[in-house]
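**Backbone geometry record:**
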Amino acid sequence: MDAKGEIEFLLGEKSCAFDSGSMTHQNFLHFRKMVRKGKCKFVPKPDLIAEIRLIKDDSEIRKMKNSAQFAFKAYEYIRKKAKPGVTEIELAKALEIYCLKNGAEKMSFDPIVAFGKNTALPHHHPGKTKCKENDIVLFDLGVMLDGYASDMTRVDFIGKPDSELRHIYDVNKAAQRMALSVCKPGVALKELDKAARRVMKSAGLEEYFIHSLGHGIGLEVHESPRIKFDGPDRNLLLQPGMMITIEPGLYLPGKGGVRYEDTILITEKGYTNLFPE
């Protein structure tokens, strides 16, 4: 529909909701001016787009599964290149080149490749740090395919794992499994985060979990809702068709960190993981 068609449509309506969280003030003034001759009333609805995107249809689900499958193949490709001497930025660029050459429209975000103590930084930017023998390596990546995003994180150990980092990896993985175990329709988002935190707390590590458990994903890599026990979406109930990430992480400053991220689809009876474990 062109601009003229949009105005004609609005003139024939009594009211029209708009997403006040995303529409610019300039656009609002423009449309309001255009419909003054009619009876259409603009009704602000700050979460309109988020609510529309919350539940994925069959076509969207299929595209997101394909995007996730692509991302996992990219991870399998790049993890084999993590060897002593290679730099973070070299791997990040090699990953991006691989994805674009094989059909991805673009990366869904700048990929994270982190070595050693850099893995303790959740939003680390790949640099010139070189991989060393017995290092810990974190990959956080995703692609846009058919307009839909994927998102995953994995940790690998080069050589013999540091015992402390291996321990937090095991605790973090157990926390993710616990969060996944409560993923089913009717469960409030806060319960997912609380489930993961109980595992971390029992291991004396909860203080090292410094971000939310996950987020919605779809046309954008970060969409509503945000999964955190005290966040604004904490009481939102899981529904079939929702696509969310579950990504607990534990980060020891100056030492290293781990994060394990999957994207899941909420189904009628539970969930489906888009990634292999």
Summary: The mean pLDDT is 91. Helices lie at 3-11, 25-34, 48-54, 58-79, 88-101, 163-181, 189-202. The chain has two domains: 3-46, 53-273. Residues 3-46 form one domain.
